[in-house]
Design goal:
Blueprint lengths: L1 H27 L4 E3 L14 H8 L3 E2 L3 E4 L8 E4 L1 H6 L7 E3 L4 E4 L4 E6 L11 E7 L22 H21 L1
Parallel strand pairs: 1-3, 2-8
Antiparallel strand pairs: 3-6, 4-5, 4-7, 7-8
Helix pairs in contact: 1-4
The structure holds copper (II) ion (CU).
Copper (II) ion (CU) binds next to loops.
Length: 178
């Protein structure tokens, strides 16, 4: 029936749009929050700067991810500094400084970023963190498989096949247009 075919196509198109939107959301909305230093938070580490460098090395950071600095107000700060100020623990010229815990710092620039505490000699005692931010949640060229279509009640295989074909044809066209 022509009417059934039209209705099937309409449903297929709607499903295709939903599938593409879910796929886009899965790519772009996935931002992760990282609590800097874990349960130790942002403080003067007992074992020096290796504490934060080893914490950092366990993760891969991407644009949009958030670093959560938990610290005691008045005892520590979160300062974004240049690489040389990071290396030399120069607290005199921070690019940005945050004094209220928790500081939720969104990573919005690719490349390395450097944080130190400006209080006393905390930086030279190891309260310093550098992370490298990647551009996207996947390396360029990575194939991200589309999520499986959501289940729905109708169990007719012909209907499923048609809708699936429309979904994948639409996704293929989408990729071609991109
Ligand atoms: Cu400090």
């Amino acid at each position: 029936m022509a009417g059934d075919r039209a209705a099937t196509n309409l449903v297929g198109r709607v499903l295709a749009i939903v599938a593409v939107e879910i796929w886009l959301m899965s790519r772009s909305v996935v931002a992760t929050s990282y609590v800097v230093g874990g349960s130790s938070g942002w403080s003067t580490p007992a074992n020096g700067a290796s504490f934060y460098s080893s914490w950092e090395s366990a993760y891969t950071f991407h644009i949009g991810d958030v670093l959560v600095f938990n610290f005691i107000n008045g005892q520590h700060s979160v300062a974004v500094v240049s690489q040389s100020d990071y290396n030399n623990c120069n607290t005199a010229s921070p690019i940005e400084i945050f004094n209220n815990s928790p500081e939720d710092y969104t990573l919005n620039v690719t490349g390395p970023i450097y944080f130190i505490c400006t209080h006393d000699s905390h930086c030279s005692q190891g309260q310093k963190l550098s992370v490298t931010v990647s551009g996207t949640n996947a390396p360029p060229g990575t194939y991200i498989p589309p999520p499986p279509p959501p289940p729905y009640g109708y169990s007719g295989t012909g209907y499923l096949y048609t809708s699936g074909a429309v979904v994948f044809a639409s996704m293929a066209m989408y990729f071609l247009v991109m």
